[in-house]
Amino acid sequence: MENSEVLRELLTDPALTNPRRKTGDPWYLAVGGFVAAMVLGWHTVFYNSIIPGDGYSRVLSAYYVFLRPHPHFAAIGFVWNPLPSLLEIPLTLLHHWWPAVVTKGFAGNIVSAAFYGVGLANLYRALDWLRVPRATRWVWTLLYGLNPLILWYGANGMSDGMLVAVLLGMAEGLLAFFETDNIEDLVRSALWLAVGFLLRYEAVPVAAFAGLGLIIALIRQGRSRGYIEGMLLVFELPIVYIAGIWMFTNWLIMHNPLYFLLSPYGNLAQTGTGSYTTPATRYAYQNLFHSILMVAHWQILFFPVAIAIVAVLVGEVRKSHRGGLAIAGAAIGAPVLQVALLYMGKSADWARFFIYYVPFGYVLMAMAAQNVRRHRRVAVLAATVILLLGNVGTWKALQSPRWGTGDHRYIAQILKGQRVHPFQEDIHMASYINTHAHLKVLLDTFTTFAVVPYVKRPNQFLMTADLNFEAALLNPLGQVNAFLVPEPVGVGALNAINRQYPGLWAGNVSWTRLIKTFPGPSHYRLYAILPDAP
Amino acid sequence: MIGDVRDRTKPTGYVSLSPFLDWQGKLCDPVDMEVAYTYDADMLRRTRVLPFAQLDDVLCVVSDNPDSPEAQEFWSALRRPVRLYLTEPWQLTLAYDRLFGIPEHLSDRQLGGILMSRNKVAAHQLVEALHVQKVDGARLGEALTSHNLANFWDVAEALAIQTGYPLIELSVSGLTAPAEAWDALGEEFWIRNMVVPVACTSEEVSIAMVDPLREGVREAVERALSRRVRLFVTGYRDMAITYARRYNGEYAERSREEIMSRSPEQSANFLLTGTQKLSLIGFVILFVASMARNWLATLTALNALVEAAYALNAIYRLWLMFISSRFPRHEVVRSVRLSFLSLDDLPTYTILVPLYKEAAVLPKIARAITNLRYPKHLLDVKFLLEADDLETIEVARNINLPNFIQLLIIPASEPRTKPKACNFGFWQSRGEYVVIFDAEDAPDPDQLLKAVEVFRHSDDSVACVQAKLSYYNQSQNILTRWFTSEYAMWFDQLLPALFVRDLPIPLGGTSNHFRRDVLRQIGAWDPFNVTEDADLGIRLSRLGYRTVVMDSTTWEEANSDFVNWIRQRSRWVKGYIQTWIVHMRHPVRLVRDLGVPGFVAFQAIILGTPMTFLLNPFLWGLTTAWFLMGTPFANALFPAWVYYLAFLNLALGNFAFMYTNVSGLARRSDWGLVKYATLNPIYWTFMSVAGWKGFLQLFTRPSFWEKTIHGLTKADVADGLKGGS
Q: Pick from B547, B510, B342: which is nearest to B418 by CA?
């Protein structure tokens, strides 16, 4: 390289031309983002009555912890990652004064809104490490915050939005580390990643591929083997340890370290029922190429990610110093997991599984633009336009039944201002129990969770999180006097009562008598336990 | 073809004849003696010409005035090819002196000349001493003796000739003045000025000095004793022996009893005060009564208390580590700052090296001290040897130690501890600053200069500068790896945080540099405390003094033998508990002295550290019992919140410490150790074994010094530095 070229490279290096200045901007973004997501969450919950089931179940898991006189954290269960529920526990304690935090699952919305704010702050700080000028940082962060998928998942109480915010924290730490060489930055990144595991399992492939990217980036920097080994350990140790602790608690309480994976309530079991099979998942099943194609197609949710990955990789080939490989690795982690799951037929084709394209798309696009030396203003402008178009793409995709699977109905309801009435079947069952005070019902909260917050006297039911649930299931006489079971089809077949007594719902268990059939999609039935029961 | 004289006296260039140090640090003389010696010395001096090298058949000659008639005479007589160089007149004169000796008519005026004329030093030795004199600002006698170029007695003889004062021998004759003369000025005066009173009559007092030209001494003695002073010259060793005769008994007593007599409540010569005994008995009675009344509730409450304390301690330590990651962790002294230090006004520095049964590593520490970049004549190094350790004494006497190292033999007495030895050396030290090095230490060569620089740029409240410690044999085995990673956490994360927050710092046992006056003021080390370093750190803090951690490392030998390690660690645990008990004799006073944050830090570090080791087996035992006996057991002993606290302690607390250790090592670039730090929990079990040994010994032999054996490795500092790359 010519001297003049070296000099020009140096003089146009954003690290020199835009030194970092500490501002309160991340705080403003975090607080502003929290408020914005809360407003949207409030609107969707209290006006539209939209309560996504997975978010709601996490809130109820938190609610179970202090429901009984002897609180126990294990009540949150060992299938879903525990952090959303753990964070929601203090909020559910407010239900005496503000029932909606539990009955409408609003505790989940509050927590996801907080993560939304954190995510904005994290992205802003990541852009700061990339030396994106302040005005552009604001524009890009606001664009990110206004991405429909990100905003919706910041407001709806689901764990996907929470993980996105945390992964941005990981990316910020990585970018800082590549800029400063400070171990503290890598530690911060690693801790965010470990927190990610407590939110969703997608953090695992992200950790694996980000680690791989980290190794390659450090090799390209000419680092020693010991250094790379050490850095990898610093980066991966927290998530590995947290995963270990999770398995340890699974073993300790459920007597199976892989309970979260293999339990009858787990994702694998649920997809095994065929409830989530669609033409798209059938297309990908047992065909690697189709699985890859399908995951690649999902980039329609945020198409700039593909452009950004290619641009960053091209930049990395020319010159490597910003950890683009590690971030690109992180970006492909979750999609690769989806390829594997779709190939095995163990995943649904929900849009939210591909939400990770958005945050990594923003970070990588910013990196690609900042890598441009000669016409950076043009590159920044182009990146802004692409990101904006990306948001429009997300908006369009979310409204289509094909690409907005799992969300397009909610979006339509919000846009049309529709009021929906979720959990009518559960409310009906709860009101029946409320009016029959003598009933003591055994129910499996895996499928029947929404009944719990509406039952006025919690001692009228015995639920999965109760310590004597197993005993009452096997020997109900004297412990409960009724079983509440859904029709054993789809995930209803995984209900603990149906698994224990497969013929019960159909009336084939002699020591039970049908009391009531409830109208609704799950066709619940309430059976009385007769004196000859075990 | 020899050519015309005018051509031959045309200078080729200019040369310097000053000896110089080559890249290996060896002193080189640009004058080739073999060439110079083939010519007559008087003729060369007269003609002001010096042949200094020969390149094939060409003779290289230097002159300060080649056109002088005398020089012309030399050129005419020379019948061979010549290459002429010019030089400064003084350089030429010095070159003659070192080659042919100082001319007789001058020899009685210069110390070097006297020594050379008496064949006590060779010319090249004098050259070396002159070089040292120039670089270090030492006087010639000091330069010669401190670099072993001449012995003390020969220099004293030469000084006597030069100054005209009579020479006096003291070591065999045992001459000494009566106590009245000694007491008139006090030991500080005699030792600092290297002077002893040797006789005293009603009219005259005779004093012997190592340096009779030292100003102000004679007048001071005259004033103090109101007598005429008669001056003698003596050797440094004679003087040291006289001091030893005069003060050894006093030093021995003071090294044992100084703290006991000054502030008995701060001495560990007894363990519990009456109040402490009563409190302990009270607690035991309360516990037994509670157990008798409701053993399960008592154990549950105790368990809750332990878990809460454990969690608080863990949180506090993690907070400290967080602090150290956010702030500069130590005082950084850059080389450029050192280059501004004037060697002329450096103070005398005392180095104390306690050596008990350290024959194997004694040469190593002597070498390490010799390698220190500090004017040797300003070093007051004392090797502290125990009278019954004949092997070490013999080695020390036989390895030709540098003269600036003094051997002090400590009379055998109880307690047989390192602090007692240090006290013995300290009370007769001369330095403005004092540092302790252990037998196996290899300090950074710049460490003393850095410490001086830190002291000079700190206010008077800084009484101690602690260097960091690391190990050069870290990769010897898994134990040394763990040991090193533990030290990294202690010196890179914990102590710097205490320093940043101005909290009491338990000093490391070595490489702590003190202001001598402060150490004198507080009575130096407690000889009965087996972690006298930690105790001293707390005492300094109680008096409002601060300790600064600086970015200089002393490389040590990590304990590589398990039994040896257990012994060492048990002493540390015992010492920390001892220190805690001593300072908790008056808890309210302690809070007043340290302030609430300091008191909390004291509890977390001095009590928390050993208690963690002692409690761990119980907590692990409870966990195991829980696994074996199932939830009913856990339900009984662990109410919900205790249970969760215990689980957090187990799951997150342990990980947090392991991970901070991993990241701390990575920050130090100790890549080779990072992966071993993940196995730290195994090391913690060893700590508990040692902890219990130390704790039990506290009641049987509280001041017994568990000796750590050194010299179990072949590695050296170079290996340590490699380990970090």
A: B510
Residue A107 corresponds to which tokens in the numbers above? Answer: 């505790």
For residue A318, count other CB atoms closer than 10 A to its CB: 8
Q: Determine the distance in angstroms separating the CA of A181 from the nearest CA of chain B, rounded to an integer.
A: 10
What mean pLDDT is predicted for residues B28-56?
A: 87
Count, residues in chain A: 534
Q: What is the ipTM of this complex?
A: 0.84
Q: Which residues of B touch A234 (CB under 8 A)?
A: 662-663, 666, 674
Domain with A461 in it: 424-529
Output the six-digit token pair for B182.
């000694």
Cβ pair A160, A200 in contact under 8 A: yes
Q: Among candidates A517, A337, A325, which has minimal Cα distance to A428?
A: A517
Report which secondary-structure segment, H or E, holds A379.
helix A376-399
Q: What is the DSSP letter of B165?
A: P
The structural domain count of chain B equals 4
Alpha-carbon distance B347 to A117, whole Å? 59
Place of tokens 């008519």: B105
Please report which confidence band the pLDDT of residue B440 belongs to, taking 50, 70 and 90 as the band edges.
confident
Please check whether residue B501 is in contact with residue B493, taking contact to mean a CB–CB distance below 8 angstroms. Answer: no
Q: Which amino acid is at B623?
A: T
Q: Which residues, at least 6 apart from B557, have a Cβ–Cβ distance to it below 8 Å?
A: B361, B440, B471, B472, B473, B710, B711, B712, B713, B715
Interhelix angle B236-262/B179-193, rounded to 10 degrees, is 100
Q: Do A95 and A196 belong together in one domain?
A: yes
Distance from CA of B537 to the nearest CA of A (A): 29
Number of separate domains in chain A:
2
User: Do A219 and A335 fall into the same domain?
Assistant: yes
Q: Domain containing B187 — which CATH number?
A: 3.30.300.160
d(CA A54, CA A200): 12
| Residue among A72, A237, A248 minimizing CB distance to B678 | A237
Is B295 inside any structural domain?
no
CA nearest neighbour of B538 among B599, B615, B450, B618: B599
Q: Of A159-168, B30-39, B424-433, where does mean pLDDT reach its minimum?
A: B30-39
Could you read off the pLDDT of A479-506 as tens digits, one per residue? 999 999 999 988 898 899 999 999 999 9
Whether residues B29 and B174 share a domain: the answer is no
Is residue A101 a part of any domain in this protein? yes
Both B488 and B512 in a single domain?
Answer: yes
C-alpha to C-alpha distances, A18 to A134, A357, A384, B357, B463, nearest whole angstrom:
9, 28, 19, 61, 43
Residues A441 and A389 in one domain: no
CA dihedral of residues A426, A432, A436, A438 (deg, nearest 10): -30
Distance from CA of A361 to the nearest CA of B (A): 30
Exposure b/e, A280-293, CB count within 10 A at least 16 = b: bbeebbeeeebbbe
Give the residue on A whose Cα is nearest the Cα of B642.
A72
DSSP A116-168: HHHHHHHHHHHHHHTT--HHHHHHHHHHHHH-HHHHHHHHS--HHHHHHHHHH
Question: Distance (Å, rounded) from C-alpha A19 to C-alpha A17?
Answer: 6
